[in-house]
Amino acid sequence: MLGETKSGMQCMEFDALLTEAIDGTLNGERRERFERHQAGCPACSTLFAEVSSGMAWLDEVEDVQPPHTLVHNILAATSGADQAAARANAGPSAWERLRRQVRMALAPVLTPRFGMSMGMAFFSITLVLNMAQIRITDLTPSNLSHTFYSSQNKFEMKFMRYYENMRLVYEIESRVRDLRNATDESERQEKNRHREKNNNQTQEQNQNSEPDRRQHREFTCGQNPQWLALLNGIEPHLDMCPRDLAKQRREI
Amino acid sequence: MEEAQVVAQLVRRCASGDAAAWEEIVQRFHRRIYNICYRFAGSADDAQDLTQEVFIKVYRTVSSFDGKKASFSTWVTTVTRNLLVDHFRKTRNDRSTDSIDAVQGADDDGPTLADRLASDAPSQQVHVESRERQEMVHRALQQISPDLREAVILRDLQDMDYREIAQVLKVPEGTVKSRINRGRAELARLLQRTYRQAL
Questions:
Q1: What's the CATH code, domain B2-93?
Q2: Is A22 on the interface with B (CB under 8 A)?
């Protein structure tokens, strides 16, 4: 069939010109011979119809939309992989090295157990500061030094005040004691005079009085007159009798 | 011509390591390459994988591209076609791509592949939507011979001229034209039978 000549054209030649005829680029005398052969050859005519039909079917086919991640995947597999390889070959940057060293130094500290302990410590300190009404701003160096010096001054002033108060107290006590001693001395002298006078009177009376009362008196005066005098703050006399002591005490 | 000059400049920049130029090239060609792979392989997943392989190979060998021998588009299409052939050979056992007119088995009077592929479903729709027609063409393309299929795809779906197709397929232009016509004819026969079955 291919070698058969119909209308001055072989089927082989017809087959060769088929593409140009379909594309519409076949002109002139060759087109006339082509059309004559097509009209006279059933096989070639059928072939021409099928080829035209196939083209018509294919003309309806449209491009499909590629997946929206396709470009990203391609770039990741090509230039993205290259950049990653370049980073790996270049080694870690200075920042990476520093981070690695810091991480190694802090490795014993960066553990969950240590973290929990630090958390508890922080919580405890915060609670104590809160209860003591100490603010964080009070812990700055300037505030700390100010607090220290002001506390020191307050303490010194307190101490000085206490010392001054104590001195005043001692002075007052000594003055009172002096006054008391002076008063006691004058009173003693007065009493001595008065006693002498009484003694004189008593002696005169005793010359006519009962000796027992004197004995009694003497007996009784011989017992513990000193402690009575000491109790009353009076300088004791060995020959003082209790009656005289009581009298002196009333006078005081 | 201006488009070709722009692409040539992008390729030079890409060969010198310009990542932005490479991204531009991927943006310009990924749709076309994907469609070639999809129409040839028949599967969207295979098409995506094959497209990535194409661009990976192009990325690695872009420095060896010689603009004097062929355009970048032709060169990329050649790379695509070679990968598609390799893919087809690896998956040969998973499909049957003999001519639909070839008789299966030794009996010359036995049923052809087209007969066996024809649907017997009684519930076929009379009027087929455009999308379904496209799907029919796509399925029919998978049934014709890969040599004819690639020629038809490059000519009728990618609008390449015969000279470029000859460069890609590494065959004479006459062979290219013959394969295209035979591919069209086989496609038409298959679709006519399927469509008549539907009617």
A1: 1.10.1740.10
A2: yes
